[in-house]
Amino acid sequence: xLGFLINMALKNALRHRLRACLTLAGLTIAILAFGLLxxxxxxxxxxxxxxxxxxxxxxxxxxxxxxxxxxxxxxxxAVDGVTSVAWANWFGGVYINExxxxxxxxxxxxxxxxxxxxxxxxxxxxxxxxxxxxxxVAGRKLAARYGWxxxxxxxxxxxxxxxxxxxxxxxxxxxxxxxxxxxQFFFHWELLNERIKKIYPKRGDSTGVFVVGIKDAGDAALxxxxxxxxxxxxxxxTLTETEKxxxxxxxxxxxxxxxxxxxxxxxxxxIIMAVMANTMAMAARERTSEYATLxxxxxxxxxxxxxxxxxxxxxxxxxxxxxxAATFPAVWVFRHLLDGIFPTFxxxxxxxxxxxxxxxxxxxxxxxxxMWQSMRVRIVDGLRxxx
Amino acid sequence: xxxxxxxxxxNMVKRRLTTTLTAGGMALVVFVFATVLMMRAGxxxxxxxxxxxxxxxxxxxxxxxxxxxxxxxxxxxxxxxDPNVALDGKGQRLASREVDVLISLPxxxxxxxxxxxxxxxxxxxxxxxxxxxxxxxxxxRPGSSEVMVGRxxxxxxxxxxxxxxxxxxxxxxxxxxxxDAGRTxxxxxxxxxxxxxxxxxxxxxxxxxxxRMQEPDSYVATIARLDGDQRLSAEYKRETQFxxxxxxxxxxxxxxxxxxxxxxxxxxxxxxxxxxxxxxxxNRVGExxxxxxLGFPRRSVMTAFLAExxxxxxxxxxxxxxxxxxxxxxSVSTMNFQTFSELAFSFTLTPGIxxxxxxxxxxxxxxxxxxxxxxxxxxxxVDALRAA
Lengths: 387, 388
Description:
The complex is a heterodimer. Chain A contains 15 helices and 12 strands. By secondary structure, chain A is α+β, with helices and mostly antiparallel strands. Chain A folds into 2 domains: 2-46 and 255-384, no CATH class; 62-236, no CATH class. The mean pLDDT of chain A is 90. In chain B, strands 1, 3, 4, 5, 6, 7, 8, 9, 11 and 12 form a 10-stranded mixed β-sheet that branches. Chain B has a two-stranded antiparallel sheet with strand order 2-10. In chain B, strands 13-14 form a two-stranded antiparallel sheet. In chain B, strand 13 and strand 14 form a beta hairpin. The longest helix of chain B has 36 residues, at 248-283. Classes of the chains: A alpha+beta, B alpha+beta. At the A-B interface, helix 2, helix 10 and helix 11 of A face helix 2, strand 3, strand 4, helix 9 and strand 13 of B.
């Protein structure tokens, strides 16, 4: 019986080839667009997802725009549960012009790199970088974008710290995991510090954040409290949190944008729901007399309902599958188009499930009204109806 | 000879469900299209209105925002002594030495922290920004740890109501007032006394010097004169330009996002229109034959079907614009990534956006209805009449 129903539904779906093709195209585009938008949302959270739970970030309690004295490093290192301390300072410089944005950090290289095992750097390159105070290290994607090779000089104009800095590229790191950020740029904090002291004699010896390695991820909250308690009511109070919540803080600041993209991704589903419902409504309307005939032959009204539902589901399964299949090449294209905006841009498994669920919901909603109407219509009225 | 428009109208009314669904799909696309444009317009207008063309902002050379900048006291004094700096009624120079820092405050509701600009200013700063009005409480007293908060901050953030205190720079700052600066970025700031902020944040330099010009028209000469002064290493911009530059990255981002979304979504709506119009044609083969037999030329048939598609899209366009116009009541608060601080702005509907949305809808109708209309017009009279 089920085989017969599916066969009938398939034949019905293909009766208007053109309409079926157009509907499928619409469904494919919608499921694809939904997938892409979900992937964009995932990409916002990539930094947080890639964060290690064995790293804490200590920064000024006022806001990230304030720096902390470098003397804190040794004091934090002595805190119970802390294994290592490194620091990083946002540089915010401009490479050639404002369009070429990428994050640059002045880091305490010798202690910073061991804290980030996911940045894989050749040992020889690492050694030359550590020896050269003018040296810098860039991520693979970043180096590829600007065609940098090891040994190149990279001039960067400071916006927070005035002056032009000529860095020499000493190494290119690759990401250990798929979601590792390969768009970052590191140089020696010591170089930055020297220049700051030269221009502003009263400043210097400070950094934006401390990255704290801890022994046990379960102690994160306790260690954070211990660190912050040390500086409570001091000139530079600290705020320590896990790297994940530090990253989530950035996402939260842009939460409105993320929310808008999420809302819009559901709108596209609703748009195509209207298109699909229209297709089903037209099909059912044209076949009113056929369905009446089926009923007259003794088929239960539910059989008519099943026919319509199956037709809708068939279309959505095919359209949804095409859309999901197209997501992968589309994401690949977008990853190259959006180069530099999102450090990582990968399809999450959850996205695929949501796409499938979206297609299913479209099929059910689209079939609902035509099913109800066709099941309810009286045989006499149905037979009398003209297309 | 033309086919009367009532024919088109009646067809649409007859097939109510299909008309509603197709126009509804288009309405959603137009809604998204219009709201994105409104968001961009709101952002640009907010930052353009923040500045006054008669004011000049001086920040350190190379700094892109006030927060990054530093202007030493000596330099500030030199800038203030420029001959084009306006005087107030008492002969005081209308130049404001300002400190801008970021503090993080929890948002109302979610409690998530976001960066807010705290601006240290003074009497001159208030005088050169007449758009700032205190709407509740009072102004901060000079030389005290008092602050007043912008309207958007008062609405969007927790713990900033009058009478409460904000803790930053090792001090408790008493909130004594709430101000409204119209649709400007100042609404997303907290204002207090410059010298108090300098002390609290242990700064030795101001962030910016903002002054009102005596003769706003000679701003080019003023900037050239200041640029020529060897003692200074600042850069100067008209306040309007300064704030407009700060919206560039964000508005480009919203613009591209909007274009990409609109193109993809409109494909869905065009397909919807096509399905509907093809069905309209195939359901009415007999009618088309009859019309042609009555002497209506091919072109009239084509026009009638195109008109139906266009009417459908126009209904969709209007249906999308109505809810979009209600979005004007809402305001968005998010981080401007150029300044790394919170900025509130509202959706702004301009006549240009209304026109663009309707044209966008009509283009969807035209593209979707064209092929079906061609099919209708190409039918042979005999075949069409026989098919019925």
